Amino acid sequence: MPKPLWAPWRLEYVEHADESSGCIFCGADDELLVARGERALVVLNKFPYASGHLMVAPTRHVGEFGELTDEEAAEIHRLASQGIAALAQVYAPQGFNVGWNLGRIAGAGIVDHVHVHVVPRWLGDTNFMPVLADIKVLPEHLLETRRRLAAAWPS
């Protein structure tokens, strides 16, 4: 039986996601931008499940998965693959979660701009802190994570 992945620190973000103004992908903060392609971009998740949690989105504002062009879908998946390579080089995770959360009920915090998540995983990467104290311990600052991944990004 699979073990649950508890992420209570994300509840505040998910509950208030619709209140934020502007789209985080359309106005991608260069501070968290890791890579940019012709049709898609890669940013660090500001509310990560693990250090190095990436999100890959089309540069065009698209709210429905089925509205992606073949070229956009291909580039998103190519950038996700490159993200896995960069994460493997920099952090040596033991596995990855890669996936789309389509719709609020499916866990999407940003419902009007589709994106895929790339989350590095390690054995035992969850601990008692999120469960007992509603705290997620990330061992590295987001800007350092961004610097390291951008430097390791495959050309």
Structure in words:
- The protein has helices spanning 11-16, 70-91, 128-133, 142-152; strands at 33-36, 40-44, 54-58, 95-100, 116-121.
- With 155 residues, it is α+β, with helices and mostly antiparallel strands.
- The protein has a five-stranded antiparallel beta sheet with strand order 1-2-3-5-4.
- A hairpin with a 3-residue loop joins β1 and β2.
- The longest helix is centred in the middle third of the chain and has 22 residues, at 70-91.
- It is globular, with a radius of gyration of 15 Å.
Question: What's a quick, concise take on this entry?
Answer:
With 155 residues, the chain is an alpha+beta fold.
Number of strands: 5
Describe the sheet with the most strands: 5 strands, antiparallel
Percent of residues in beta strands?
Answer: 15-25%
Residue-averaged pLDDT: 82
SS summary, helix count: 4
Which structural category do the helix and sheet elements fall into? Answer: alpha+beta
Enumerate the spans where pLDDT stays under 50 for 5 or more consecutive residues: 127-133
Query: Which term fits the overall shape?
Result: globular
Please bin the fraction of helical residues.
Answer: 25-40%
**What string, H for helix and E for strand, traces the elements in order?**
HEEEHEEHH
Distance between the termini: 40 Å
- Order of strands, main sheet, comes to 1-2-3-5-4
Rg calc: 15 Å
